Amino acid sequence: MRQNIHRKHTGNNSIIQGMGIKAGVMLCVVLFTCLSVAAQTSSSGRIKQATFTVHGDCAMCKRRIEDAAMSVIGVRSARWDNEYQLIMVEYDASLVKLDKVHQAIANAGHDTEKIKASRKAYNSLPECCRYRKKYPKK
């Protein structure tokens, strides 16, 4: 008898009921995420990527450089490559100018292709991170 009552309340089998509650919730989350990403990506081309030179020497430098770039409001991602001395930054051009990212990285003690870190910022780096001896100015 209880099974009959349950059937009356559930009505016709829907797609979500057929999949189970967990699968239905996951489907909703995936659909929402896809729609959100599509909406953000198509926001009138405001999201841009830039790659530029940033000098550093080790894993600690990598973290410091990426953290400095990410501290700028509007930066969505930052990945620095030690071997090539390049950072790839994805940012919202309506919120930030790329010069602010260069300045934040220089303030952390690392020279970029546009802005040289101050002597004070550079000298505050740990000894192992002092890259200028490795990459002298030409």
Q: Which properties best describe this structure?
A:
alpha+beta; 2 domains; three-stranded antiparallel sheet; 6 helices; 3 strands; 138 residues; 15% strand; globular; 45% helix; Alpha-Beta Plaits
Summary, kept brief:
With 138 residues, the protein is an alpha+beta fold.
- Overall shape: it is globular
Regarding CATH, which class of the largest domain?
A: Alpha Beta
Major beta sheet, strand line-up:
1-3-2
Label the structural class.
alpha+beta
Topology pattern, helix = H, strand = E: HHHEHEEHH
Could you explain how this protein is built, in words?
The protein has 138 residues and is of the alpha+beta class. It folds into 2 domains: 40 residues, no CATH class; 87 residues, Alpha-Beta Plaits. Helix content is 45%, strand content 15%. The protein is built from 6 helices and 3 strands. The chain has a 3-stranded antiparallel β-sheet with strand order 1-3-2, covered by helices on one side. A hairpin with a 4-residue loop joins strand 2 and strand 3. Helix 4 packs across helix 5. The longest helix has 21 residues.
